[in-house]
Automatic annotation (TrEMBL):
Record protein name field: non-reducing end alpha-L-arabinofuranosidase
Top-level taxonomy: Eukaryota, Fungi, Dikarya, Ascomycota, Pezizomycotina
GO molecular function, one term: alpha-L-arabinofuranosidase activity
Record-listed E.C. numbers: 3.2.1.55
InterPro entries: Alpha-L-AF_C, ASD1_cat, GH, Glycosyl_Hydrolase_51
GO terms for biological process, alphabetical: arabinan catabolic process; L-arabinose metabolic process
Top-tier EC class: hydrolase
Positions of the Alpha-L-arabinofuranosidase C-terminal domain: 418-612
Reactions catalysed according to its record: Hydrolysis of terminal non-reducing alpha-L-arabinofuranoside residues in alpha-L-arabinosides
Classification via SUPFAM superfamilies: (Trans)glycosidases
SMART domains linked to this entry: Alpha-L-AF_C
Organism of origin: Trematosphaeria pertusa
Keyword annotations from UniProtKB, A to Z: Glycoprotein, Hydrolase, Signal
PANTHER family: ALPHA-L-ARABINOFURANOSIDASE 1
Length: 620
């Protein structure tokens, strides 16, 4: 295949081509990137998921019961755990999110107690396989029945002890009046950038490896809620943890809301990502829609959220932000109105009044924000001068057939691919996903290559595309609702599973095209490609993916202005077969990087196999 790349005449890119999308699904927040180790730390519950003692168990003769005291820890956390015993050493034990990994490092913990107790608590990490306490600390207490008291501690185990550990708090029951009440029992390992209430370093490092330019949050379906009155309310995710009530997420578990709005913004800060903030837009997943004449409070709420993030301290919500310890505002340049709000019963109301009501109000106050519709209805977005969010979960053949999908979209970096993944094997009749059929457990190589073809198609349309994010991002292998996912983990796995698609995105994202460059008479199938120039490395780039080739393809590539002797680097990703995938402990993706020198007339020659993904980068 001869590819001749011109050196002028292309389109600038958004600069944000690769980002990430996050919602709490698969225990990706609680039990995932949010570093809290204690599961069910505050007995949060709702009509959907009533409060439970699970997974807490008692130590000694203690009787455990949930109580809704007349003077709870806070109105947000009305339920607490009563631990009753008349004598002896008693307490409570928690196994964490299916295991607590113990390392020789400092753990920061705290818990609230109500009840008379003049003694000390022992906070410890306990290895239940070897029946051994692997780290403990005494926490002096003069707790009182008249008020809730917070107890804080640090704990540094003497030795590492795997993941089969529980966290325990014990006390001398004879020094109480017969019981104590506990709430908000928290334990954090070191976090990324040492942020309090922060993130797991290993998962943050994995994300950093993707060089992501934006974070779309906080959903996904999880933004929307299933039925009234539950949807993800931003103002219930800010401030002290004792003031966050939690939320019955749409993915079958109660969310703690410990990972909240400020934590998302810190996440953006820490990885240099542009926030793409989704606001609730009056549509629940089970179809109730807020009528037009009742929508205003929700629009006001979105504006209040923006005020909280961006307002100076003279505004009500800017002042609230400052009072919580964040005097400096953040900037929001991108907002998405809802999530897939064009679906189901939401569809007609979205395009007839809901989207417009939010967009007009937001742009009236913030004219520079690009407001995105949570639909890829191209005509609608164009009419409304809006952005759009295209989602695609499909099969490999279908993704490849969409190589040209964005060719006629609107210019202006307005189209985000907010979610995409190849999720099922091809079927003879072709077509997209069968939502009643099983999906792949992990991304498969053939799917990964098809995603690369689709993304290359998006990159060719540089002037239209904002960027793309795979979804879902994370999967806790001990409890999840959706597969395949980009990154998987478990307390019981020594290393996180970086999927085949992770490796593909890492390669595509690491080689950023600043301006696409035209290719002389391009023809695609089985080789799909895009060329461009990178300003940061001052180099020419050719990205390609090969799908369904019956033979090895001999490539012959020239870049206008690059002559004989020029040096290039070719990186090629391959895998043993189309259905190779990365599982716990395995990595099937082979990364081959070689140096190439341009021959006569500046030609770079190399061979590429079927189902390979490659990047050729040549210094300008
Ligand atoms: O990524 C999983 C789900 O797929 C998202 O929550 C939703 O937006 C989409 O339908």
């Amino acid at each position: 295949l001869d590819i001749k790349v011109a050196n002028t005449g292309g389109n600038a890119t958004s600069g944000k081509q690769y980002g990430i999308m996050f919602e709490d699904i698969n225990h990706s927040g609680d039990g995932g990137i949010y570093a809290e180790l204690i599961r069910n730390r505050a007995f949060q519950g709702s009509a959907v998921f009533p409060s439970t003692i699970e997974p807490w168990t008692s130590i000694g003769d203690a009787q455990l019961s949930l109580q809704n005291l007349s003077d709870p820890l806070s109105s947000a956390l009305p339920t607490s755990l009563n631990v009753a015993a008349s004598s002896g050493k008693v307490g409570i034990s928690n196994p964490g999110y299916w295991g607590i990994e113990v390392k020789v490092q400092q753990y920061n913990g705290s818990f609230w107690v109500k009840g008379n107790y003049n003694g000390s608590f022992t906070a410890s990490l306990y290895d239940y396989l070897s029946n051994e306490t692997v780290g403990s600390v005494e926490v002096p207490s003069n707790a009182s029945a008249s008020e809730w008291q917070e107890h804080s501690f640090t704990l540094t185990p003497e030795k590492a002890a795997g993941v089969n550990n529980t966290f325990q708090i014990t006390f001398d029951a004879s020094a109480t009046d017969g019981s104590l009440d506990f709430n908000l029992i928290s334990l954090f390992p070191p976090t990324y950038n040492n942020r309090p209430n922060g993130m797991r370093p290993d998962l943050m490092e994995a994300l950093k490896g993707l060089n992501p330019s934006f974070l779309r949050f906080p959903g996904g379906n999880n933004l929307e809620g299933n039925d009234p009155p539950y949807y993800l309310k931003w103002n219930e995710t800010i401030g002290p943890l004792k003031d966050r009530p939690g939320y019955p997420g749409t993915w079958s578990y109660e969310n703690t809301n410990g990972l909240g709005l400020v934590e998302y913004l810190h996440w953006c800060d820490d990885l240099g990502m542009e926030p793409v903030l989704a606001v609730w837009a009056g549509f629940y997943l089970d179809d109730p829609v807020i009528p037009e004449d009742e929508l205003q409070p929700y629009i006001d709420d979105a504006l209040n959220e923006l005020d909280f993030i961006m307002g100076d301290q003279n505004t009500n919500y800017g002042a609230l932000r400052a009072s919580l310890g964040y005097p400096d505002p953040w900037t929001i340049n991108y907002i998405e109105v809802g999530n897939e709000d064009n679906l189901g019963g939401g569809g007609s109301s979205y395009e007839s009044y809901r989207f417009q009501a939010f967009k007009y109000a937001i742009n009236e106050k913030y004219p520079d924000i690009l407001v995105m519709a949570s639909t890829a209805d191209f005509d609608f977005a164009e009419t409304e001068d809006a952005g759009e969010d295209y989602h695609q979960y499909t099969r490999s053949d279908y993704f490849v057939s969409q190589f040209n999908f964005f060719d006629n979209f609107i210019t202006g970096f307005k189209t985000m691919i907010g979610e995409y993944a190849a999720v099922q094997p091809n079927i003879p009749e072709g077509g997209g996903t069968d939502w009643n059929a099983a999906r792949w457990a992990f991304p498969m190589w053939i799917g990964t290559v098809s995603e690369a073809v689709f993304l290359i198609g998006a990159e060719r349309n540089a002037d239209k595309m904002f960027g793309a994010a795979y979804a879902p991002l994370f999967q806790n292998l001990d409890s999840y609702e959706w597969a395949p996912d980009l990154i998987s983990y478990s307390a019981n796995t020594s290393a996180d599973v970086l999927s085949t698609s992770y490796h593909m995105i890492q390669l595509m994202s690491a080689h950023r095209i600043s301006t696409t460059l035209p290719i002389d008479s391009p023809s695609f199938d089985p080789v799909y490609y895009v060329a461009g120039h990178s300003n940061s490395s001052d180099s020419y780039i050719l990205k390609s993916a090969i799908y369904n080739s019956t033979e090895t393809v001999s490539m012959s590539v020239t870049f206008d202005g690059v002559s004989e002797g020029a040096e290039g680097t070719l990186t090629v990703l391959t895998a043993p077969d189309p259905f190779s995938y990365n599982d716990v402990g395995s990595d099937v993706v082979k990364n081959t990087t070689i140096s190439l020198t341009a021959g006569s007339d500046g030609v770079f020659e190399f061979d590429l196999d079927d189902l390979s993904i490659s990047v050729l980068e040549v210094k300008a």
